[in-house]
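Researcher: I'm preparing a figure for a lab meeting and need a structural model of a single chain. I don't have an experimental structure, so a prediction will have to do for now. The sequence is pasted below. Please return the structure as tokens so I can convert it later.
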Amino acid sequence: MHELIYFESPGYAEPTRLCLELSGLPWKNTTVEWDGYQELKNNGELPWGYLPVLKTPSGTIAESGALMRYAATIAGLEPEDLYMRGKVDEIIELINGWRVHFTPTFYIEDIDEKAAARKALFAEGGKIDLGLKDLESLIASSTTGWVANTENISLADVKAFLNIFMMFSGQFDGIDASMIQPYPALLEYHNHVANEPRIKSYYDRDDDLRWVFKPGAFDNN
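Model: Understood. Here is the structure written out token by token.
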């Protein structure tokens, strides 16, 4: 059995969690708090000293991108066609580019300054605003409803769905659910992915953070 170890929050592990769920294989979701993380680290169970890690039948894998792609492969979410796989990876890297601009805001100590810096990213012409509009254009040109225009859901959809909508969950100062409204194509995409039967079933639970992955999550915002 595969075992994913991370904190309770979605964070860097959520794409791997969802891919494992979509694989249909049995897997274990092990969550730890800070003391548990320190124990794993001190015991030498974390290859590079960080979470998440994925324990597989062959050994432990670290680094969230590697975990995600491993889990996506066993779930059949990576296209066999090399060109299409390249396009899927292209979209993933496009989304990863947002972290370059968003991550530094975590180190701003003043709450008002932090909120202002994040709002600027979503303002017209801001880095994240432009990134979201790029994704809207991809969705608009897709004939299948999936962001990479694949026949079925791919890893690009897992990455896009989780990373986009988690931003509006309310856990980040300066960003609230109403800020998704200027992106109607993303709202339609959210409805498409959230209603995928396996995803809908997986997120059918009470969760203060993961409510954004449920169908109709943004209907009242």
